Amino acid sequence: IVAEYGLFRRDSDCNVQVNSEGEVSCCCRKCQLWKAFCKGSNPEGIPQYEVFTKEYVQFLAKYVRGRAVLYKKKPLLLLEVGAGDGRLSWYLSRELRALDADAQAPCYSEEHLSQPSVSVRTSDNGVLGLHVSSGTGSIVQILDYQAALQQCSPHLVISSWQPMGEDWTAAIRATPSVKEYIMIGEVDEGICGHPWYTWGVHAEACMSSSDTDDNGDNHETCCGLQNQIPAWTTSPAFMEDGFERCELPELSALQVCRTDERWLSTRHSHTVSFRRLHVGAAASPIGD
Questions:
Q1: In angstroms, rounded to a whole number, what is the distance separating the alpha carbons of residues 139 and 85?
Q2: 241: buried, middle or exposed (CB in 10 Å: 19+, 13-18, 0-12)?
Q3: Burial status of residue 176 (CB atoms within 10 A of its CB: 0-12, 13-18, 19 or more)
């Protein structure tokens, strides 16, 4: 994908323009092809928020399997909320099965080899209907994130591109079984989740590569969300709830998303883990 569309090349042949409102864009043919791909002109025929590459999913599978070993769960119950068409869970499950079948991969005792190391559940509220025409949509349970958390009682939760201005993480942390949750997408003052309640960041200036989300909301909306923060709040909600924030740079380095540009070297999507304290080691290298 990176090579095909020439992403992250500051020496690209783009003709970057700044309009009267300060919005930066390029209308060259290659940039238009990339934007069209993200909007649905791709083999799956669906919008792409996060473009999940083979390399990314393989590393994520190694990380998740390592957490199953760390937490001594067999299987580890993993729930993806807001999964859309179910692509991530579909391919992640496939990679996890491959790791379980690999004799070189870390495993438990022989009597447990018949059990998967990780059991993946997939949920979405179905409002956008992305699961209907997708080849991976059959695995998606039509449940909102709160109902899915209640029914599944997961150990680990994944949320990719949580809607802008919304925060699902409070409900995730309030689920007693959850030991860790992984957020995928733009972080902090970006267009995923709430700057403070999700990421623990007071955004003084909401600046991102993307000026609007798919609903047309701009980053003035994001900045306005700061007014919702109680005056007495001093610590991020995840810290108050006994979680710590851990960046996963090895995974972030492999990410590609719809707000990435051919003419910028920066990757705008990241993978961040939030871990409940005192349930295991604070860090686990990918692949462990």
A1: 9
A2: middle
A3: exposed
Q: 119-136 b/e with 16+ CB inside 10 Å = b? A: bbbbbbbbeeebbeebeb
The one-letter amino acid at 97: R
Cα 231 to Cα 227: distance, rounded to the nearest angstrom: 9
- With beta carbons less than 8 A apart as the criterion, state whether 104 and 149 touch: no
What's the pTM value of the predicted model, to 2 decimals? 0.83
Q: How many CB atoms lie within 10 A of CB 11?
A: 8
Task: Tell the residue number behind the tokens 């961040």, with chain if given.
Answer: 272
Q: Give the span between the Cα atoms of 215 and 210, in whole angstroms.
A: 13
Strands 76-81 and 118-124: parallel
Tell me: the pLDDT tens digits for 20-47?
A: 887 888 888 888 898 899 988 877 777 8
